[in-house]
Specification:
mainly alpha, 5 helices, 59% helix, disordered N terminus
């Protein structure tokens, strides 16, 4: 049976004897300065795209419900369709805003020297994962553990 990444249950606190046997956790980003600057540039570019997307989605959603008579649907089915499109646009904008927040946190981790360290285990996140998901907070192993612990149907 695999040992959980985070101890749980009775007696989950790590004793000082156990802690002294563990390898020390890195507290500084394992990524070189040049590579950190590349990640910063990637994150800033992605953020700029998302900010533009959010603005466009929100303005489209709000203009759809502007109330001008020329935009008023002539049929009840059209009203439902317009409402669904507006809801979808606002939901997409909310998801983009959440990702912008994740990107901002990743940039903060670069500034603080913690970028590339798993927030759950303190161990380095594999560079391949960061290249695919530069705002990743967790190593793939920790992310899987968190996913396993999440109640089904909750995102």
């Amino acid at each position: 049976m695999r040992k959980p990444l985070i101890p749980s249950g009775p007696g989950a606190a790590v004793s000082t004897a156990d802690a002294s046997n563990e390898a020390p956790r890195p507290t500084k980003s394992p990524i070189r300065k040049r590579e950190l600057e590349r990640f910063r540039a990637i994150l800033l570019a992605k953020r700029a795209v998302l900010v533009g997307d959010v603005s466009q989605l929100e303005s489209e959603a709000l203009s759809a419900g502007g109330g001008a008579l020329s935009h008023t649907p002539q049929h009840m089915a059209e009203q439902g369709s317009d409402s669904a499109e507006q809801t979808l646009s606002l939901d997409l904008a909310a998801a983009d805003r959440k990702l912008i927040h994740e990107i901002d946190d990743a940039i903060k981790r670069i500034d603080e020297g913690r970028f590339g360290l798993c927030e759950m285990t303190g161990k380095p996140i594999r560079i391949e994962r960061l290249r695919e998901l530069p705002w990743a907070r967790y190593s793939i192993e920790a992310a899987r553990e968190l996913e396993r612990r999440r109640p089904s149907g909750v995102w």
